[in-house]
UniProtKB/TrEMBL annotation:
Taxon lineage: Bacteria, Pseudomonadati, Pseudomonadota, Gammaproteobacteria, Oceanospirillales
Protein name (record): Methyltransferase
InterPro entries recorded: Methyltranfer_dom (IPR025714), SAM-dependent_MTases_sf (IPR029063)
Tree of life domain: Bacteria
Keyword vocabulary terms for this entry: Methyltransferase, Transferase
UniProt organism field: Halomonas urmiana
Length: 401
């Protein structure tokens, strides 16, 4: 049963928990040689390290269910606070032909999103950051009026317009930088903006423009860390006051934590990722020894497929990136083995951050909801699809009553 809390109450409670537990969720376990939480949490640390691989995998997938961390962390409260209703929409399958030129997963997301865009027949529809306007084409088929799709890349606009024309869909692709000062001209009290997975500043701008122009909006936000500001400034007045009072400040890197949960990758990709993680941790110990400095050293990331075939080659690459000269006679096998062992430990310690990911994401979306409520909107917040389809499944629906 989801809690019947107002958005303000839910936000207040989540703010308090996030602030109280920041010493546990802020540290990045891979940067620490041992426990990142010190003596105070040695029992938590011991319990984590005892977890079997199967238990770790289960908790990664379902961090709130039957969690052994509940003896130390506010698991039950967090679980309740992130439980949101699925927003209703007019059910019904869309004709398969509408899916032409849209990738399978993206189409399934559009199928889930579309019925939840509760625009009234007299509202003009606008898609925000539309790409090739796949959502706009689907929206246009629901009603008679033309849908405007805003996108700043000329090639996407051209391709999208061609697709719409060929399919006889009433869509106008409009080349528009939504961050430009004149972007507000597309919005009015008669418009309803739909935005599926619009990133940080792009959806923050949408919310500000809706508040200013009185446009209704249906938004699934994404990538909160894609923002020009290095530190998060809550959008709502209430959020700014509460965050300041609690000392809750978030860097861009910390915002990224809210969207780190991804749909499970195929087994071979996962194995490769685990290997890369273990090698990084093995190299970390090696560089501490070579430098004589017991501190983490960030190494650039490598695109998938560029990881060298062997541990030694990886270390030589990493050392070169950091301008380090490796001595002769390194016991590669020993460092590789220690890296593998550390990876198992880090994965277990990561379960603590994992518990706070969804709460942080919900907190960020609630801040957006409060901004619109402060501007006189009625706001609904819930989910629009199962997490397996996309973990970014939160939906905000708002209109000025
Ligand atoms: C994450 S995609 C979302 C696309 C589409 N809504 C979807 O769900 O597939 C973001 C889109 O926003 C566009 N975009 C990025 N910055 C923009 C800006 N300042 N103004 C307009 N569009 C922008 C990108 O070109 C891209 O097509």
């Amino acid at each position: 049963m989801p809690l019947s809390l107002s958005h303000t109450q839910r936000f207040a409670w989540l703010s308090a928990l996030l602030a109280e537990w920041q010493p546990l969720w802020r540290p990045l376990p891979f940067q620490h040689r041992g426990s990142p939480w010190g003596e105070a949490y040695s029992a938590l640390e011991a319990a984590l390290l005892e977890l079997s691989d199967a238990e770790v995998a289960r908790l990664q997938d379902a961090p709130f269910s039957a969690s052994p961390l509940a003896d130390w962390l506010p698991v039950a409260a967090l679980a309740e606070l992130v439980e949101l209703p699925e927003l209703t929409g007019e059910a019904g399958e869309l004709p398969a032909a509408w899916a032409a030129h849209v990738g399978g997963r993206k189409w399934s997301q559009i199928e889930a999103f579309l019925p939840r865009v509760a625009a009234s027949p007299d509202e003009r529809l606008v898609e925000w950051c539309a790409g090739k306007g796949h959502l706009a084409r689907a929206l246009s088929r629901r009603g008679a009026a033309e849908v405007t799709a805003l996108e700043w890349q000329a090639t996407l606009c051209r391709d999208g317009q061609r697709l719409a024309d060929r399919q006889g869909a009433a869509v106008r692709m409009a080349e528009q930088d939504v961050l430009a000062p004149e972007a507000g001209r597309w919005l009015s009290p008669e418009t309803h903006v739909a935005a599926l997975h619009a990133c940080g500043d792009l959806h923050a701008r949408l919310i500000e423009l809706c508040a200013a122009q009185g446009s209704a909006v249906t938004l699934a936000p994404c990538c909160y860390q894609r923002t020009a500001a290095a530190h998060y400034r809550p959008l709502s007045q209430g959020g700014r006051e509460r965050a300041a009072a609690l000392g809750l400040s978030l860097s861009r890197e910390e915002l990224a934590m809210a969207v780190q949960e991804t749909v499970t990758a195929p087994r071979h990709v996962r194995r490769r990722r685990e290997q890369a993680g273990a090698w990084r941790l093995g190299f970390d110990l090696l560089q501490r020894e070579v430098r004589g400095v017991d501190a983490y050293l960030p190494v650039p990331s490598l695109a998938y497929g560029q990881l060298p075939a062997r541990f030694e080659a990886f270390c030589r690459w990493a050392a070169e990136q950091k301008g380090l000269v490796l001595p002769a006679g390194v016991d590669w096998a020993a460092f590789e083995a220690v890296g593998e062992r550390r990876r198992a430990e880090v994965t277990r310690r990561e379960l603590v951050r994992h518990l706070f990911r969804r709460p942080l994401e919900v907190w960020l979306v609630l801040d957006r909801a409060l901004r619109l409520e402060e501007a006189g909107f009625d706001v609904e917040l819930g989910t629009f699809c199962a997490r397996e389809l996309t973990p970014r499944n939160l939906l905000l629906r708002a209109s000025r009553g």
